[in-house]
Amino acid sequence: MRDKQARWLALYTLCLGDLMIVLDTNIVNVALPAIQGDLGFSPTALAWVLNAYMLTFGGFLLLGGRLGDVFGNRRVFLVAVVAFTVASVACGLAPSSGLLVAGRAVQGLGGAAVSAVALALIMGLFDDPAERAKAMAVYGFVMSGGGALGVLLGGVLTGFLTWHWVFLVNVPIGVVVWLLGSRVLPRRPAAVTAPRLDVVGAVLVTGALVLLVYGIVTGGAGLPYVAGGLALLAVFVAWEAHSDHPLVPLRLFRLRNLVVAQVVGALWAGAMFATFFLSSLYLQQVLEYGALAVGLAFLPTSVVMAVCSLRWSDKLVIRFGPKPPLVAGLALVAAGLGLLARVPADGGYVVDILPAMLLTGIGAGIALNPVLIVAMSDTAPAEAGLASGLANTSFSMGGALGLAVLASVATWRTDALTAAGVGHADALTGGFQIAFGAGALFALAAAVAGGVLLKVTSADAVAGVDAEAETAAA
Fold first, then answer.
1. Is residue 463 classed as helix, strand or coil in its secondary structure?
2. What's the mean pLDDT in 258-278?
3. Which positions ≥6 away from 363 have C-beta within 8 Å?
4. Which among 110, 266, 406, 451 could disulfide-bond with 394, CB atoms 3.0 to 4.6 Å apart, if both were Cys?
5. Per-residue pLDDT tens for 177-191?
């Protein structure tokens, strides 16, 4: 019993650390107008409050996961929590735009390492299928619900306090996570032969991801950087094929479920990340909601995600296996985004916004748990950190690409409608509508890919049912 309590306390610690990271991805969105007015950002430079974080976060994920495999996931997690917390203090107290952007970049480094190793640590804590499904349900809520919680908390903090607190709120969380983590996270036994780190491969893949993310977040002007990132990625693949100690063994990409889970995760993250960002803008720019009202508008999404993740997702995985709830959840997300694609310029929250948010929240709460289980199911424990980094990289790159694509589509449509003489609110709404529709297609494509390409045997579901029966009998 004591061992079980220790495992679950370790899980909650890891989830709290990862929640701190996930919150930070969206908590800043609502505070951007206040940050711009206080620190004097130009409209173009303001995007770097988000881009600096995404750049280092996306670029460092694979290296962070491998560092966990080499030096120990526990050690990397604790060091990364400290780095993220210190950077949060720097951001919250930043007196200038340049220092804020620099602090955000360091936050991205720490956040990448935390995210890359947390999932690997969780998978190592739980061997029993039923316990693992429940643990992944909790982690899935953190990952899927953190975006909505970030918008909610950002609105509350900006509305009642100041924008500084969207960063400073990380400090007490980070301190608690470090104190608990240093006591409850398991120590890995020392390896007889310490694994070697592929330094050249690490430099190549990190540089490639940084260039790709930079090119994505800067839009059309970033195409040369995307091309450079793809070229560097090709060099990395060639290097890994001949390396004696590769950073990313290419045989991992023969693991069908791992690859499919990355594709599904990238498509889904592209839809969800952009949706949180664009729906926040719709509420503020079209419906003229204040920061606090925007945050409260996302409260139902957070609640239904929590209920579905924590009470239903694991039961569905145990009963049916990971594929059916994954497909059903993503289909609900697509339906919710499809409803958002119909929002009018004079929309009402209860009629036009709430139903879409509820559907999206239910779908996200159900689907993320099975995606993560599938992504980690075929990898050896010694490479769990790397597999975790790969999964998180697909989410990060998908989120960055989805935001860039859907925001560009929205801007293009708005500009076209404005040029045609359509009023400002209607033009903005037209842009948001087409972006939400494209997001729905992303989510639908993720559902189809998961349903068609994932290979989950019936034995997996049977094992889950047996484990559930044993747990209930106990």
1. helix
2. 83
3. 328, 329, 330, 331, 332, 333, 334, 335, 336, 443
4. 266
5. 999 988 888 776 544
